[in-house]
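User: Teach me something about this protein's shape.
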Amino acid sequence: GTLDITENGTYDVTNYASAEVNVAGGSDEMDALVKRTITSYSNDSLTSVGNYVFHSCTKLTSVNLPKVTSLGTSAFNNCTALTSIEIPLVQSITTQTFYACNSLTSLTMPSLKTIGAQGVRANKKLAKVDLGVVTSIGALSFDGCSLLDACIVRTSSVCKLVNVSAFTGTLIASGTGYIYVPDDLVASYKTATNWSTYASQIKPLSELEG
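Assistant: First, the predicted structure itself:
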């Protein structure tokens, strides 16, 4: 059916599993309202998040998307209050997906396989990243994450590092942060393309976890 939203208020959407929504004042007005006010978002049926969906939702603090597998360009760009991300099945991050999320201190994504260029760039408080099965890290992925001192890569084979710029502007690049990889892959990482730039910062997982 069709749901007409004519003014601020609460609407019963029980009978609208799928509906055409008409928003008075136009979608731009509603988008702006949502971006100014949304503080948390949870959806247990959504499987993907498109480009710019939450861009500049500056009051958004938490996201829970248990079935989402892909995140689009700038999906959470400039979500400056975001501190909690629960997206356990996400497999891909594209350009600037988490750009300038300056309240985010850690990022754990056990199913993530690819990080696009600038995917997690300029997160000023991000100190730890834990990646379970990542196979490719793009250029400038963590550039400008000035507090990043631990990047954990658990993948059972050497992950592709597209460009050495992935860690520029981090504590890893400055020599006081470390990249932790499976013990049996340390030697391979130290000589692998682009990873070799950070050879002195590459350590075994056992040193981190005991």
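Now, about its shape. The first helix runs from residue 27 to 37. The longest strand covers residues 2-5. If you'd like, I can walk through any region in more detail.
User: That's plenty for now, thanks!
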